[in-house]
Amino acid sequence: MLPPLVADLDIAVAVIRFLRNEGVDVVSVREENWYNYEDRDILREAHEMNRFVLTHDSDYGELVIHQGENTCGIIYMRSGSRQSKEVIVACKTFSAQKLIGHDDRLLSANLTNRHGYI
């Protein structure tokens, strides 16, 4: 099972709906009306709420690794031309795997699909 999440603005509504139907506790940036929030603000909100950030935006890793922002974790899925159904398949795979800690501030898992890493 995936941890509680904050779904970034770039995560499709269909993906959020799927995750909730699977029992994942998801707070949506879109639903919270955090449109004017910077990535740093979203990361801080997620940390205060004890949630991982689910995103297609690699800037979160930069904030955590190079700028020292605190986080419970980030689930980063490369975007490109990903359709919602591909992200949903990746989420299913991710929820079935153990999270691998790279350091105390960033957690991830290795996922692959027919296009390579997600």
Q: Percentage of helical residues?
A: 25-40%
- Major sheet details: 4 strands, parallel
Helix/strand-derived category reads: alpha/beta
- How far apart the termini lie comes to 18 Å
SSE topology:
Blueprint: E1 5-7, H1 13-21, E2 26-28, H2 39-48, E3 52-55, H3 59-65, E4 74-76, H4 84-96, E5 100-101, E6 107-108, E7 112-113, E8 116-117
Parallel strand pairs: 1-2, 1-3, 3-4
Antiparallel strand pairs: 5-6, 7-8
Note down, in words, how this protein is organized.
- Helix 1 packs parallel to helix 4 (84-96).
- It is globular and about 30 Å long.
- With 118 residues, it is an alpha/beta fold.
- It is built from 4 helices and 8 strands, in the order βαβαβαβαββββ.
- The protein has one domain (5-117).
- It has helices spanning 13-21, 39-48, 59-65, 84-96, and strands at residues 5-7, 26-28, 52-55, 74-76, 100-101, 107-108, 112-113, 116-117.
- The chain starts with a strand and ends with a strand.
- The strands form 3 sheets. Strands 2-1-3-4 form a 4-stranded parallel beta sheet, with helices on both faces.
- Helix content is 33%, strand content 18%.
What attributes does this structure have?
118 residues; two-stranded antiparallel ribbon; 18% strand; alpha/beta; four-stranded parallel β-sheet; 4 helices
Summarize it:
The chain has 118 residues and is α/β, with parallel strands linked by helices.
